[in-house]
Amino acid sequence: MATDNSALWMVAAFVGAVIAIPVLGSTFGGPPTTVTNLATGTEPVDISKTQSIQKRLAKAADIDGARVIGADSEPENWLAHGRTYGEQRYSPLNKITDANVQDLGLAWTFNTETTRGLESSPIVVDGVMFATGSWSVVFALDAKTGEQLWVYDPEVPREWGRKPCCDVVNRGVAVWMGRVYVGTLDGRLVALDAKTGKPVWDINTIDRTKPYSVTGAPRIVKGKVIIGNGGAELGVRGYITAYDAGTGKQLWRFYTVPGDPRAPLDAENQHLKAAIPTWKANAEGWKYWEIGGGGTVWDSMAYDPDLDLLYFGTGNGSPWSRYLRSPGGGDNLYLSSIIAIKPDSGEMAWHFQETPGDTWDFTATQHIILADLQIDGQARKVLMHAPKNGFFYVLDRETGKFISGKNYVPVTWAKGLDANGRPIEDPASSYRDQPKMVQPSPHGAHNWQPMAYNPQTRLVYIPVQLTPYLFPLDKKREVKLGVWNTGLDLNLIATMTAAALAAGQPMPPAEGFIVAWDPINQKEAWRAKHSTFWNGGMLTTAGNLVFQGAGDGGLRAWKADSGEEVWKIDTKTGIIAPPVTYAIDGEQYIVVSAGWGGVGVTLVPEPANAIMKYGNAGKIFAFKLGGQKTIDVPEITRPPMVKPPELTASAAVIAKGAAAYNRYCLVCHGIFAMSGGVVPDLRYSTPEVFARYTEIVIDGELKENGMASFADHLNEDDARAIQAYIVQMANAAYAAEQKPAEPEKPN
Ligand code: CA
Predict the structure, then answer these.
(1) 605 by DSSP, 3-state: which?
(2) What is the pTM of this model?
């Protein structure tokens, strides 16, 4: 890889992203009359000024199903995750239009005090914003000023940071009947009093012996809090659970994949009767029910109150590779599917599997949008979906029947869809016998970043990233509990990539762009290209506008109908979250969280990425007409690299270290030890850190920073070998920094 040394400033020491926010005292229960403003650390806030806020917080108590269903009658609020139960992420607000958007500027900034990814989609009710930060921290802010009203830190054990595939992110809260609900990274569901931020109840939603994590926003339907989880990269069984919003009592649990096929099915999971025969384990592979099977419900849901159906998407198989998960073939229901259930009982109404027998990490957990479209002269109630696999689907949401589908990007794994919407797999993409490059990659052509649908333009705006990915089957069939078990040989990915680069082959192209998709005619209307691969979610408004942030820190607006770029501001922090919009006192605001990360922790920063120039201080930005036109963030001074320790280890020890690094460390710290900048770049460790690999890797000395011990899999010899490999990579980077003209050759 042509090392971009300018990217390699994430200096030294596992500084991690520890947030230590003291929980605010009794802000609204009488004295004291001033409290510390936690956004700035020192400035006192006069509580008497918050009387109106208190009233607004109390009014936020009013959110219920009727109010969410009637959301269009109060467009000033953003009441639910995707604004409405149909999750279109379209706002009827039209104070900001394509004609005046050039006057949009910064209204306020809120500093979340973190440097990890921010994916939150805030809820805004009656002038109050409820947003989440890294490590599942919840903030209540005055949506007009950005002033912090309260903060709640669920105190997620930082060691849990080893379990999520893709950073310690959280995608937001649900607000209902005076309470704020958050799913925590370590698998809890917490109900907070909306007025104070204090927990009302705090329950466990997972088997804590398994590597589950929760990053998705709960949804609330008919007084039931619905929440899923993630972990299918490491090895878990997917499910979704409903809890009573009042008491936290579990109402039902819907498993998406079979457990042990010999065990009897409980009454709630009779839908698995049809799934079991589609899983075909044999001696060649793994017992899928022991590793978990996957199918986790880690993000999207939508609800149709008229049909009384709740829709959600299921994730990839665990392991990814079906050649190990189900070597006898089969579709492996209900992986990579859209599922419709009755929210009262959890009973399945229908399912539609988008990637039968998924073997590429093609999740169907991507954002679901409900809309009513005229198709062939008929009014159809549809569900629209652009999963990782690269195809855009329009389904009848009453029956689950396929209406139409088309690839929205070039794909190599399938030749198209048949009349029932089933993909026609290209046998040439099989990696059972030899490694294959496949497009889209496990990043997806579209990942969790929400899309948006504008009923005026009848276009869906899809945030797309596109790159091919190398799939080598793990011929050793190696299962390791509590770490990544994809069934791919990660060490072979690294060594083959290094060999290809050494032979002068370029890195595969990686592009990020918006596709504006016409779902009725299944064709692209326009596209807008970004300079970065990994970018933010979408918002569209009645002002004929589409908003999206990018990895370069730019928040931009395009005309929704034509794709003409009409506004840009440089926030100087990479954006992956979706913007939302609301209004207070007649003024419309656009708000977005900025903090690069997510799966981006494993991506090498691109030259355009803001993380290289400004770091990654997580912030929430709000914009309004007449606001400030520029955002000032000082550039980071990158100290020169400290000379790394001398490389004394033998080639055999370095090779052993590389193999262990690629198996256990690469998924967070990056290929060739080149960090994406969100977690520390190990090559830039100080000599003191280089001297403490045993203490860090084995003893867990830095577990409070999110670097857990790996003593369950590695011993002191392994830690020393990993250190030797990093020392080798550090010396190569150091040599390149001394001679910046010559690109580094990775080993
Ligand atoms: Ca996955």
Answers:
(1) coil
(2) 0.92
Q: How far is the CA of 305 from the centre of ligand 1 (A)?
A: 30
Does residue 4 fall inside a structural domain? yes
Query: How do residues 368-388 score in pLDDT, each as one tens digit?
Result: 999 999 999 999 999 999 999
For residues 626 and 103, the answer to whether their CB atoms sit within 8 Å is yes
Query: Would residue 717 show up in a list of annotated catalytic residues for this protein?
Result: no
Long-range pairs of 491-497 with CB within 8 A, sequence gap ≥ 24: 491/658, 491/659, 491/662, 491/663, 492/435, 493/662, 493/671, 494/658, 494/662, 494/666, 494/671, 494/672, 495/658, 495/662, 496/435, 496/470, 496/472, 497/1, 497/470, 497/671
CA distances from 308 to 266, 303, 339, 425, 516 (A): 24, 7, 13, 34, 30
- For residue 526, count other CB atoms closer than 10 A to its CB: 19
Distance 230 CA to ligand 1 centre (A): 8
Residue with tokens 């919003």: 245
Q: Which domain holds residue 725?
A: 1-30+479-506+638-738
Catalytic residue among 167, 361, 681, 718: 361
Strands 90-91 and 538-541: parallel
For the four alpha carbons of 283, 284, 286 and 287, in that order, the dihedral sign comes to negative
Find tokens 């060691």 and name the residue. 159
Q: Is residue 535 part of a domain?
A: no
Q: Rounded to an integer, what distance in angstroms lies between the CA atom of residue 423 and that of residue 446?
A: 17
pLDDT band (50, 70, 90) for residue 583: very high
Measured CA to CA, the distance from residue 361 to residue 452 in angstroms comes to: 23
In a domain, 130, yes or no: no
Mean pLDDT across the chain:
91
Whether residue 422 is predicted with pLDDT greater than 60 in this model: the reply is: yes
Question: For residue 447, how far is its CA from the centre of ligand 1 (angstroms)?
Answer: 10
How far, in Å, from the CA of 450 to the mean position of ligand 1? 16
Which CATH number do you get for residue 685? 1.10.760.10
Residue 68 counted as domain residue: no
Q: How far is the CA of 699 from the centre of ligand 1 (A)?
A: 29
Backbone angles phi, psi at 639, to 5 degrees: -65, 150
Ion ligand 1 residue ranges (Cβ < 5 Å): 316, 361
Kindly state the DSSP code that residue 628 receives in the 8-state scheme.
Answer: B
Q: Per the structure, how many domains does the chain have?
A: 1
Over 347-361, what HEC string results?
A: CEEEEEECCCCCCCC
10 Å Cβ neighbour count for 480? 13
